[in-house]
Amino acid sequence: MSGVEAAPAAVQNRILRKVAVRLMPFLCLLYFVNYLDRVNIGFAGPNGMNDELGLTATVFGFASGIFFIGYLVLEVPSNLALHRFGARKWLARIMITWGAVATAMAFVPNATTLVVLRFLLGVAEAGFFPGIILYLTYWFPAAQRAKAVALFMTAVPVSSAIGATVSSVLISSGHGIFGLSGWRFMFLVEGVPAILLAFVTWFYLTDRPSEAKWLTAEERTWLGEQLAAERAQTEAEHSWPLRKALTHPRILALAFVYFGIAYGLYALGFFLPTIIKGFEQQYGTELSTMETGLITAVPYVIGAVAMVVWSAHGDRKRERVWHVALPLLLGGVSIPIALYLGNPFLAMVAVTVCAVGVCSALPTFWALPSNFLAGAAAAGGIALINSLGNISGFAAPYITGALKDATGSQRTGLWVVGIVMIAAAITVVALKAAPRTDSPDRT
């Protein structure tokens, strides 16, 4: 097995399947816990936290979104550190610090402390998501990368779906345990797993294929040569230094596209439980905390299935641009009309369509940057796209909350969500950021 072409297709598929089975379930578990600790404030808010701490919708949105300012500050240096020191050590370090801060959220005495801890949570988590996106480029060739990212990112809708139910159970059944309110007990229980998994990460993950004792020597050789050949081709065609990767207009445009995707994701993540609670006033329904959690889960379950199917379709067609743009258009058109519909069932159909659009666009988007970035430039460029795009994590909940306070309705905020998503779709089409991966023109 001396080169990239030496392994027949069946052998290649076996090797990549072996890698996927070894890495993907564990990485999904890590991101499940990560995303849950990031958005569980959305369940705490309407279930006691806002009343206990005296939070308006604007302050709640600010506290939800300030996380991403801290995230932005250290995202690029954190990913460069991962590239230098290895994923195993650096991800474990990130998890210990974010777990400690997430657990401390259970004891916030007032709004100011809540805001400070949310900011520190962003600082602690910086580099986790783009670090894993970078880590996947060390293990999966370009032709399989969108599907690999999709499998990893199913943790987002799964975390939102299962997390909605789990968080609701913890809030409902945890009230009074250790003398804590239900929402405080939820923060405590959901923060601890990150600390425990940090120690598992240290011993379980393997930094590079060349170090994988769970692969045979022949498997390590083939995979290493395949990935090295792709990196060499990318560097020969583009040869982007780190500075260029951090300043090139294409990177900045991709950051805006990701801003639009994430804007929809976080608007749903932080405010969907509140929107569903609002059905009681709008439609005269009565929902328990558990029922709200179960209803919140539905769009994400369907979104998880769509995410995997759509990204696999993009891999087969070797097309990226429209596999990002079409879901964004679908989600952007559907979400503003959700609260204009005549009954809660139709409103949830519209919300579900938006969730499908957001979830379907996410994994294919992350196949775009690696088309022209490698090495340190990939580490820095991917982190920059993620950090700038995640400014929407601050903007979406803050703007949505502020517009709710200003107008007395969620409708204006959801119109903004739709407009931003459609603008991102138009941008990725205009940019043509990723030609077909088999095209000779990959610039």
Automatic annotation (TrEMBL):
Membrane topology of this protein: Multi-pass membrane protein
Subcellular location: Cell membrane
TM stretches of this protein: 19-36, 56-74, 90-109, 115-136, 148-171, 183-205, 251-272, 292-310, 322-341, 347-368, 375-400, 412-434
Source taxon at top rank: Bacteria
Record GO terms (molecular function): transmembrane transporter activity
Keyword line: Membrane, Transmembrane, Transmembrane helix, Transport
Keyword hit for Membrane: yes
GO cellular component assignments: plasma membrane
Record-annotated Major facilitator superfamily (MFS) profile domain positions: 23-436
Purpose: Component of the tartrate utilization system and may allow entry of tartrate and tartrate dehydrogenase.
Protein's recorded name: Putative tartrate transporter
